[in-house]
Amino acid sequence: MVTNQAIEGSFQLIGGIFENAGNASIQLKQKLTELGIKEDVVRRAAIVTFEAEMNVIIYAAAGWLRYYITPQYIKIIVEDMGPGIEDIELAMQEGYSTAPEWIREMGWGAGMGLPNMKKNSDEFKIDSVVGEGTTVEMMINLTS
Amino acid sequence: MTLKKIVEILRATIVSAADNSDIDIQGAYSTDLMSNVLYYHAPNSVLITSLVNPQVVQTAEIAGIKIIVFTQNKKPDKDIIELANQKKIPLLVTPFSMYIASGKLFQAGLHGIRNN
Questions:
Q1: Which is nearest to B34 in space by CA: B69, B66, B16, B58?
Q2: Per-residue pLDDT tens for B35-69?
Q3: What is the DSSP letter of A94?
Q4: Cβ B62–A18 below 8 Å, yes or no?
Q5: Mutation for B interface: A17, A112, A118, A120, most B CBs within 10 A
Q6: How many independent structural domains does chain A possess?
């Protein structure tokens, strides 16, 4: 990594707008690549960010994606104003999804998003309030 | 396996401008579920899909996929091609179904990614 200073940034996400879906994740991916972070770590960070970004676009009215990059870790926090998740344990199961049919026809809603975010993060936290929204916090270590 | 070889095996047409003829493809994955692509991601692979929308290209970039093959002559529109050109991901269109396209590449020695 070429910097010793913490870098942070954020993106606003709008629900239901699929045209730009993935742009926040791709910009973060480019930034991490420019910083000289290893390719496999960049890919893991891009994947968890993309999954979280898609969830906001699919389920929520709007949300924020914030990231912090330090020499030790990458932290990605995605907070949305969405319907919230009733049963987090169930939502974390591979294959469980509440996505409507039209979302599935677009190739999403296979019930792999949250498990994949957890799989690719070193630390994964999820907090949700029904009727208010969901926050996921994911950390990827840069020191092994 | 090279792009040229994949085009030949799949009797495919390259519909994007990207010319990455020296890519070395090491694996393949066939699905219409983009979450599965992200879950079983593998760099330097080819994605075989019948789903045609811009998120396929976005997902490919995130997952490190180097070539996208659309099956059964499904042609991507201008916007999708433009996006793929920006990302230098070649888009191929094959007349074969997902099953046949996958089988032909497998038979030619291009195996799946990991155990999937």
A1: B58
A2: 889 988 778 899 999 999 999 999 999 999 999 99
A3: T
A4: no
A5: A112
A6: 1
